[in-house]
Amino acid sequence: MQSKDIIKDGTNVSLDTSLRLQGDDSERNAPPTKDTNLPTCLLCVCLSGSVYCEEIDIEAVPPLPKETAYLYARFNKIKRIAVSDFADITTLRRIDFSGNRIEEIEDGAFSKLLLLEELSLAENRLIKLPVLPPKLTTFNANQNRIKSRGIKANAFKKLTNLAYLYLGHNALESVPLNLPESLRILHLQYNNITTITDDTFCKSNNTRYIRTSMDEIRMEGNPILLAKHVNAFSCLRTLPVGTYY
């Protein structure tokens, strides 16, 4: 079929050329799309050992460069963390998964991360905690759905460097057991904690024991009157924040 000539701004333009021009305009006006199949350092920003994958709608942990030390993957759609995600990345020191949809973390997913110091799983959908790496100094699991049965009795016992523990806005019925001596800040606000024992923070068989590192405990928003459990705080330098009357 022969193309027909049309007049456009006083110039003869063939009909098929005109249609191509219109097609070009529609492509330019089309909304941008996110291609989550791109290589990690095109999809994310990789800079001096840090990988920034924030707000790009990824649904899984992307393959990371071998030398990655800091991973920021906040506000995405990640639902699951697998052992294979970090199996070959032993250099990680900080991971931030805040604001995703994580429901499951495979056993051992963080077991090889012997250098990891900071881990944030805040604002996800977890009902239990994974096994945590031994050198953590900061762990944030605020705003999840964690119940006391989802935290193993010795989950924190061997974390001798842990200083900041954030478990606020969950569904805990009790304070986690065996909190390490290194702990400075403990946030448990807005859970469902109803009981505290004399051994929760202190040692009932040692009246001289003082928990010297602890600076702050937040327990407001729990259905418990702290004034009924004054002996539970005898080893603390400051009383927990919470309801007393």
UniProtKB/TrEMBL annotation:
Record-linked Pfam families: LRR_1, LRR_8
InterPro entries in the cross-refs: Leu-rich_rpt, Leu-rich_rpt_typical-subtyp, LRR_dom_sf, Mimecan/Epiphycan/Opticin
Localization terms from the record: Secreted, Extracellular space, Extracellular matrix
GO BP terms in the entry: articular cartilage development; bone development
PROSITE patterns, per the entry: LRR (PS51450)
Entry's Gene Ontology cellular component terms: extracellular matrix; extracellular space
Sample GO molecular function, one term: growth factor activity
Role: Induces bone formation in conjunction with TGF-beta-1 or TGF-beta-2.
Protein family: Belongs to the small leucine-rich proteoglycan (SLRP) family. SLRP class III subfamily.
Protein known as: Mimecan
Species whose genome carries this gene: Calidris pygmaea (Spoon-billed sandpiper)
